Amino acid sequence: MSRIADRFGRAAPTYESATPIQHAVAGRLAERILESGVPEAARVAEFGCGTGYLARALTPRLQPDLWVATDLAPAMAAAARASTSLVAVMDAARPALKPGFDLVCSSLTLQWLAAPAAVVTAWRGLVRPGGRLAVSTLVAGSFAEWRAALEQAGAASAGPAFPALDEARAWFAPDAAVETFALTERHGSALRFLRALRAAGADAAGAADSDALTAGVMRRAMAAFEARGGAATYHVLMAVERVGQGAD
To answer: Within its chain, how far is the Cα of 75 from the centroid?
Structure first.
């Protein structure tokens, strides 16, 4: 996990200029959270807060009694303090919080964790009965254009293996409100795509193991990516689950 923290920590100064998709997904998740009936004075825990996209999208209409925003990267947590006052450095895979939150939420963090099903179970355990668990994550098909370009170039590694849609759906209760959608970001050139990934902290995770790519393979992959249009598609699953029983 230290490698992930280091990568996203280095990206903290450039993150907001390089992540229009992440910003859009956080806004959409915020809409679904508000529609779900979370109380205005909610107790909220957020994992993988980044620079504070979700907090900024929610707080104009949600005035939480407590908002604990957490991120594994200290630099990201520091950046989020402009959006919410209570921020902690914490591994989302090992949430060190007491149960009783009205809302536990996370936007586009779960896909980088090694055991996402177990993480969702841990997050659910922090929600009071009747509260909400709200999560967005990437699923199979994300970065398909770059993966195809790598495969065409003969790369041994074709980027991360995101979970299948059915697998990710099974992490949540059968009656959870689940939606899927795709968003495409057009970069034009492969160089702009790779620079954007790096500026977002996802250079190794979002593309491929750069240490395993030769210069020739990379050149061929970049050419193939541009020949396909220079676009990258994010396939997103979003789930809002009412946890347990009890009145709101």
So the answer is: 17
Asked if residue 124 lies in contact with residue 196, where contact means CB atoms within 8 angstroms, the answer is no
Residue 76 is classified by DSSP as H
| Ranges of H-type helices in the chain | 2-11, 15-18, 20-35, 53-58, 74-80, 116-124, 144-153, 165-169, 190-199, 203-206, 215-227
State the pTM of this model: 0.92
Write out the H or E segment, with its range, that includes residue 45: strand 43-47
Residue ranges of domains in the chain, CATH in brackets: 2-242 (3.40.50.150)
What interhelical angle do 144-153 and 215-227 show, nearest 10?
130
Which pairing describes strands 66-71 and 87-89: parallel, antiparallel, or unpaired?
Answer: parallel
Calpha distance 172→116 (Å, rounded): 11
If one counts every other C-beta atom within 10 angstroms of the C-beta of residue 229, the result is: 12
Each residue's pLDDT tens digit, 68-112 = 999 999 999 998 988 887 899 999 999 999 999 999 999 999 998
57 phi and psi angles, rounded to 5 deg: -75, -30
The Cα–Cα gap between 46 and 98 comes to 13
Question: For residue 110, which of 65, 163, 174 has the smallest C-alpha distance?
Answer: 163
* pLDDT (0 to 100) of residue 96: 94
